[in-house]
Amino acid sequence: MKIVKVPNAEIIAPKGGAFAYKTAPHLPSAHMVSLFIGKRGSGKSVAMTNMVRMLNYDILYVISPTFKSNSLLLKDLNIDPDNVFDNPDDTSCVDEIIKRVEQERDDLEMYLKDKAEYEYLVAMLKRNDGDIPDELLLKFYNGMVFAPPYHKYGGRNPFIGLIIDDAQSSKLFSTKKISNLTIKHRHIGAFDSDRPSLGLSMFFLVQNYSCKQGGLDRSIRNNCTNAVVFKSKDETELAKISSEMSGEVSKDDFMTAYNYAMEDGDYPFLFVDLHRRKNDHPSMFRSRYDKFICLE
Length: 296
Known about the structure:
The protein is α/β, with parallel strands linked by helices and 296 residues long. The chain folds into two domains: 33-230, Rossmann fold (3-Layer(aba) Sandwich), CATH 3.40.50; 232-296, no CATH class. Helices cover 33% and strands 12% of the residues. It contains nine helices and nine strands. It has helices spanning 44-55, 71-77, 92-126, 134-140, 171-174, 177-183, 218-222, 235-244, 251-262, and strands at residues 33-37, 59-63, 84-85, 160-165, 201-206, 226-229, 270-273, 285-287, 291-292. A nine-stranded mixed beta sheet has the order 3-2-4-5-1-6-7-8-9, with helices on both faces. Helix 8 packs across helix 9. The chain is globular, with a radius of gyration of 23 Å. The relative contact order is 0.17.
């Protein structure tokens, strides 16, 4: 085989990447699309709560008909009850969440604009400049001092997540709204500048990986960055999960890791990170979150 190089045609990757938020070394990269797959009572809510708690989001939204009744989850994750949408048949909740994320973007843009004006004012005051515009003086003078603008996240992008629970077979899943949001989840709240979009992570808690109606659309499954798989007697579903992940992992490796995790103590589940940090994570498989399964 002969290779002929083409000059000036190399691929140049853009700066940044798919995961704009820094998370602790032992945690998955963000933003993410996480699937929690298990039958009723398997422990999906507990596993999700622990992951989300460790990730320490600034803002969490929830779409679930049952979440408000679980006060422990609301308390553990410090979720504002106004951010819980309890009717997954009302798909306008997706539009409302996007609207709120974009409002966070607008608030941040306004803060950055005000901050630049405030710094300009301070510089003029230090120079004892006599031509300071009155509107600039009035904007930041609070009656005693010139106060800088305030942003509740200190001028950084807020870290935002969305939890979807007990919503299978609802209109949320039978329409394309949640699929479209999943496809563009990293790009919600985009800036006109090259500043990374706010985006949001998505956590799906489902009893079935796929079903004929109201299940996880293939576009959601294809955008999955990590998955938590609980014990299942449905060999067909396990085969489908391993098959759709086969671009990243072989079916045999998946089942070897799965079988080990299911026999590893109480509350077993297999955590599969399809975008593991190779410098920090020796394997894409874990038994729960605290034990890497390293296959030879």
